[in-house]
Amino acid sequence: MRFNQSTSIDCGNLILVPYLERHVLKYHEWMKSPELRELTCSESLTVKEEFQMQKSWLEDEDKLTFIVVYKHGVENKKPQVLHEIASHHIDEMIGDVNMFLTEGYEDVEEDQNQICSTYIQAELELMIAKPEFRSKGLGTTIIEAFLYYIEQSGLLESTHIAKYIIRVGSKNLPSLRLFKKEGFQQTKYVACFDQVEMEKSIR
User: Fold this and answer.
1) Residues contacting 34, CB < 8 A, separation 6+
2) For 134-182, what is each residue's pLDDT tens digit?
3) Would you tell me how many other CB atoms lie within 10 Å of the CB of residue 162?
4) What is the phi-psi region of residue 124: left when phi exceeds 0, alpha when psi lies from -120 to 50, beta otherwise?
5) Model pTM greater than 0.85?
6) Which of 66, 65, 69 is closest to 92 using CA atoms?
7) Measured between alpha carbons, how far is 9 from 15 in angstroms, rounded to an integer?
8) What is the CATH number of domain 2-167?
9) Is residue 148 within 8 Å of 182, Cβ to Cβ?
10) Where does the N-acetyltransferase domain start and stop, copy by copy (predicted)?
11) What is the Cα–Cα distance from 107 to 120, expressed in whole angstroms?
């Protein structure tokens, strides 16, 4: 999303920065891991496809993504939006967080008739690629900072998001616990993909 091309979110030890071309090769190395692809329900891409995906995440108006970097020796703090790309090294990358907008459908009653109503939903994805940074509470900081940005930036209103949703592999228990803690409720289990779907209404 062009909206965040020059934006960072500073949480002290964690900083969210736009997904840039210089991040792609490291990201591609991460996604060679079958475990990560299973946990994130992702497909294996070539380097060329990964660069195309990066461009899509940066430019498409229905996608928003940040790379997460970790600063050793820095204390955690409340998120602060910076209108610049914070200084960081590729080796400090530990994961990413993103959303993409899709159209949801629900049946509503109107004048004693059932009609299909549409709404905009934001599907969230969180990945901490480096195992040594998992189960340390960092996922909570990342998600809360990401949602803070969406709400404070005006994106919530301009994109008319009605709810957040996630789709997570049923074996990804840390993610399921995290989103439950953040107020998400399970709405569906998709057996063919072994995925749990959870959602959190906004309005």
Assistant:
1) none
2) 989 999 999 999 999 999 999 988 999 999 999 988 888 989 999 999 9
3) 17
4) beta
5) yes
6) 69
7) 6
8) 3.40.630
9) no
10) 34-203
11) 15
